[in-house]
Amino acid sequence: MIIADIFDKGGIVVWVLAGYSLIALTILLERMIHFGLMRGHSQKFEQQLVAALQQGTVEQLIEKMRGPEANILRGMMQASREGITDLGRVASRIGSIELQRMERGFRTLSILGNTAPLLGLLGTIIGMIKAFMVIEQAGGRVDAQALAGGIWEAMLTTGVGLVVAIPVLLLLHILEGMADRRAQNMRSDASLLLEQLPHVSDGDQSEVVHHREGVLHAV
Q1: Do the Cβ atoms of 184 and 63 come closer than 8 Å?
Q2: Contact 186/69 with Cβ under 8 angstroms?
Q3: What's 17's DSSP letter?
Q4: Which single residue of 28, 38, 63, 119 has CA 20 to 30 Å from 110?
Q5: What's the confidence (pLDDT) of residue 204?
Q6: Residues in CB range of 48: below 8 A, 6 or more apart
Q7: What is the spatial distance between Cα 48 and Cα 75, in angstroms, rounded to a whole number?
Q8: Mean pLDDT, 10 residues at a time, over the chain (219 residues)?
């Protein structure tokens, strides 16, 4: 069976599913490029960050970084220079923004992946209804070969729906895992920076620790 036959026999449902796949492919490629351009963490980064804080060279270290971890650290350092002591809230705010950037398009992919099989099933049900209407009109005297052909044509949309949904959901889970790892890096870096930065008083430090526990969930 060639592609033209699939579109011809599947009808409008297959065309809609083709639109699903085109939208999903566009989002997936854009997200893959986005994650690919973000530099990852080195295994020794935490030691480098602690050493840079002790030596006063943290700005130079952060300047070499790119990605959400660099943005959250840069924002916290800027807030610290401006005299803001509630750095946990700053980390939570920046972390939420960075997560939204990383997860852009995820909801759309989820909708496409979860509704594609249902749309395919709808096409199959419509096709089966038409097939049994033909049987009724023929008074029950229908060629078995013709009936089988009508049924597999009806089942075609379900197969197309699954072909669209499976790779979309699989790649969505991979992207979600990549975003989760970057979010964990942000939480770890923000926590480490809060532990190492000097604070004005013990009261301020306890308040920052309180908000740091909140940012571990918010980021």
Answers
A1: no
A2: yes
A3: H
A4: 38
A5: 40
A6: 42, 61
A7: 18
A8: 71 90 95 83 71 72 77 81 78 88 93 94 85 71 65 84 95 93 85 68 37 40
Under DSSP, is residue 103 helix (H, G, I), strand (E, B) or coil? coil
* CA gap 145, 53 in Å, rounded: 78
Q: Cβ distance 119 to 17 under 8 Å?
A: yes
Give me the amino acid identity at 45. Answer: F
The span from the CA of 105 to the CA of 114, in Å, is 14
Rg of the chain over Cα atoms, rounded to whole angstroms, equals: 27
In this prediction, residue 208 carries a pLDDT of 36
Q: How many other CB atoms are there within 10 angstroms of residue 206's CB atom?
A: 10
Inter-residue contact 144 to 64 (CB < 8 Å): no
Written as one letter, the residue type at 126 is I
* Tokens describing residue 157: 């949309």
Give the integer Cα–Cα distance in Å for 102 and 119. Answer: 28
Locate 144 and state its tokens: 């078995």
- Residue pair 113/167 in contact by the 8 Å Cβ criterion: no
pLDDT given for residue 21 in this prediction: 94
DSSP H helices, the chain, are: 3-10, 12-37, 45-55, 58-63, 68-81, 87-102, 106-137, 144-196, 202-218
